[in-house]
Amino acid sequence: MDKGHVLIVDDEDGILSSLEAILQDEGYRVAKASTGEHALDLVRAEVPDVILVDVWMPGIDGIKTLQAVKETSADTEVIVMSGHGNIDTAVTATKLGAFDFIEKPLSMETVLRVVSQAVQSRRARDAKSAGRAVSFLDGNDPKVDALCSALEEAAGDLRPLVLLGERGTGKRHLAHVLHNRGITREGPFAPLHCRSLASPKRKSDLQASLRRLLPKEGSGTVYLDGWEQAPAEERAGILDALAAWTKDGHRLLVAIDEDGGEAVSLWDQAAERLRARKLHLPPLRERRGDILTLAKSFLAEAAREGGRERDFAEDALASLYQYDWRGNVTELKSAVTRAAFSAPGRMVRAEHLPSPLHGGSLEAGGPGAADFNEARKEWERKFLSLHLIHHQWNVAATAQAIGLTPATLGRMLKRHGIEPPATPPRSAPGGRQRTIGHSLVLYGRGLHSGLKTGLIIEPLPPNSGIRFGSLTTPDTVAARAEFVDNTNHATNLRNGPVVARTIEHLMSALHAHGVTNLLVKIGEEVPVMDGSAVEFCRLLEEAGLEEQGEGAAPLTLDRAYEVGEPGSPEGYLRAEPADELSISYLLDLPKPIGRQACRYRHTGPEAFTAEIAPARTFSFIWELENLERMGLGEGGRWGNFILVDKERVVNTELRFPDEFVRHKILDLMGDLYLLGRPLRAKVTAERTGHRHNVALVRLLTETLL
After folding, report:
1. Average pLDDT over the chain, rounded to whole?
2. Domain CATH for 117
3. pLDDT score, position 200
4. What is the domain count for the chain?
5. How many Å apart are CA 686 and CA 565, to the nearest integer?
6. N or C, where is the chain less crowded by C-beta within 10 Å?
7. Do 341 and 292 fall within a single domain?
8. Is 151 found in the same domain as 82?
9. Residues 6 or more apart whose Cβ sits within 8 Å of residue 222
10. Beta-carbon-side half-sphere exposure of residue 509 (alpha carbons within 13 Å)
11. CA dist 344 to 197, 308, 309, 341, 445, Å?
12. pLDDT tens across 347-396, in order?
């Protein structure tokens, strides 16, 4: 029998190929996607039994993919994979409905065991759904009454049946119902997709695939999906082969998606070829009177599973009734199930439903759209514009309010041509906003936490700023001085539950490249990589930079600003007016480092990449014990920082004779970017650290911004 349809989603080609080969050898039908976007497109075309998805992916990450799948197909089992996750990620995935969480490197025995369990769970749920009172066919609409009557008649014999309906109308559910009520109920229910079959042109191969995929004897039900996707010249041969195979004791059901102009014609052709009955499943929008009946049934079912009472508030019922349900009953069930488990109290309100359902009432203007797609675009434009105005064109706040990621909202704004109103620059003219061309992923280890982690960078629309987030919450923290939590051996941000640690190396690369709008997803700490900013510069160059127009004007100074006293052993930092950014740093540490001085003139990313970015973080051996007592430095490895004893560097060759002072300039470049814009100033630093850098940024922010 067909062991199941598995979709693998991972941005590593080696993982995709290995899992595909292993699962196919075990008899699974496999599809692959290297991005979350592609995966969701495949799910919309054909819902798999099981999805294996990696957490750390560019664009739509694994957690967002899981969430999107569960919103549209709650019964699909999703297995989350990660080699750089943590307990919070696993807990979040579980709360969102993940079947299991597997750590990389993958054990093939574990993968096969968990996939098998997930397929069994999915099919058991299908069978249970078909046998219980809550049915996709519940309701009082005349179309459903006629369908149920035809179903009862069909249950009494083995005549083939051809089903026609849009995706989500319940074709597979109806097939299970018919199997459980019909004369084949003692035999197996065998789902089959056309992609699993060899071409009828190779008869021996086709027969071999049928022997492998279908019950060998006795009675049962064979459910064929995807017939309309087969090449036109092969469709008749497929039906003939299946009709011959199922003629003794088996019922053949053929499902056709009503999503194309030729669907009705194919429905007629298949029925004529098989001499079969025809059944049409109406879309939910044509049985609108059944929406609330079905919704209440699905809510009661979810309440029983969760062990808590649930009721709909009036605003939720109104949202459910008014929505168009292009995904039909499947989409309705997913929306209600998700709301049932996310609502904190007994009442399920409109705000607990997926965001497209509770966008509020928008009055149409003008003559109206010519068709549904145009109407939907018009509604989206108005919906987004109203929320942006309400949140004063703060893209990140708007995205959080309507349940999107800032990157997704940015793509929608670009698609609809929505731009913020022009705002006058707050400082010198000539600045440009900039983001990256596309999303990318980087893997590494946190310097202070010691945990394996990852980093995803995503483009953001204009006026978003640099923001740090995680995979487990839509909340973010802005890379601004007011959100600095502490400067204990690193610059760390916090905004409620969102934490971003050790951001300075990445921020220095963003500063050097002039990136002003970016979302950075991390597992609380930015990976240390080799202790420098080289990998972050490479990542930005690979992602490409995209100009976004004016608005990020460099900050210019009206006078000198100081932190500390000149010559003080406690540190001194001064910024004074200039036409460009330059940094002069005096480092004064015990030998063998001693006194080092360096002046850097920032003329662009090329200068930074050559002169500053390669400089690595460093530590004296006797400092390590103190770091360990504070729970820091757990991720220090022989190759990601410079280790110094009383006489020499003990673990590496220096990249510059004065690499230590250059790294202090790197840190200062990163901390200065907490201003939220480039700085034009002559900066002089003596014996300073993150504490001094952030103090200067706060002083400039309070005075000039």
Report:
1. 84
2. 3.40.50.2300
3. 81
4. 6
5. 10
6. C
7. yes
8. no
9. 190, 192, 214, 215, 242, 245, 246, 250, 251, 252, 253
10. 24
11. 47, 11, 11, 8, 36
12. 999 888 887 776 543 333 334 444 555 666 777 777 787 777 766 677 77
**Pairing verdict, β 5-9 and 29-33:** parallel
**Alpha helices by DSSP H, 132-157:** 142-154
Q: For position 304, which CATH number holds?
A: 1.10.8.60
Separation between Cα atoms, residue 318 and residue 696, nearest integer Å: 53
Sequence-ordered alpha helix ranges (H) in 641-705: 659-672, 690-704
Kindly state whether residue 366 falls inside one of the protein's structural domains: no
pLDDT of amino acid 301: 84
User: 677: domain CATH number?
Assistant: 3.30.1700.10
The answer on 201 and 146 residing in a single domain is yes
Q: Identify whether residues 575 and 698 lie together within a single domain.
A: yes
Asked if the structure places residue 364 within a domain, the reply is no
Q: Which pLDDT score is estimated for 2? A: 62
pLDDT of residue 510: 97
Asked if residue 407 and residue 463 are part of one domain, the reply reads: no
Contact 56/68 with Cβ under 8 angstroms? no
**pLDDT for the residue 88:** 67
Q: Which helix (H) or strand (E) holds 584?
A: strand 582-588
Residues 22, 49 share a domain? yes
What's the predicted TM-score (pTM) here?
0.60
Do 100 and 164 lie in one domain? The reply is no
663 labelled catalytic: no
Q: Sheet holding 498-500: strands in order across? A: 484-486, 492-495, 498-500
Judge whether 325 and 72 are in contact, CB under 8 Å.
no
| Residue 364 pLDDT | 37
**pLDDT digits 0-9 by tens, 403-443:** 676 767 777 887 777 766 544 333 333 468 999 998 888 87
Domain range spanning residue 438? 432-550
Examine residue 427 and state whether it is found in any structural domain, yes or no: no
**Looking at the structure, do residues 311 and 264 belong to the same domain, yes or no?**
no
pLDDT tens-place string over residues 483-511 = 999 898 899 999 888 899 999 999 999 99
Q: Is residue 401 part of a domain?
A: yes
Q: What is the CATH number of the domain that holds 475?
A: 3.30.230.20
β-strand partners of 161: 253, 277
The closest of 465, 588, 611 to 532, measured between CA atoms, is: 611
User: Which residues, in sequence order, are bridge partners of residue 492?
Assistant: 486
Strand partners, 547: 434
Q: Looking at residue 363, what is its pLDDT? A: 38
What H or E segment, with its residue span, contains residue 240? helix 232-245
Q: Which is the catalytic residue, given 5, 173, 663, 690?
A: 690
Q: Given 99, 129, 159, which residue is the final one in a domain?
A: 129
Three-state SS at 108: helix
Distance CA 182, CA 179 (A): 5
CA atoms of 271 and 276, how far apart (whole Å): 5
Residue 633 CA to residue 644 CA, distance in Å, equals 15
Low-confidence ranges of the chain (pLDDT < 70): 1-2, 72, 84-88, 126-135, 215-218, 260, 358-376, 390-392, 400-401, 403, 405, 407, 419-431, 446-452, 552, 624-640
Last residue of a domain, one of 238, 253, 282: 282
Cα–Cα dist 475/380, whole Å? 23
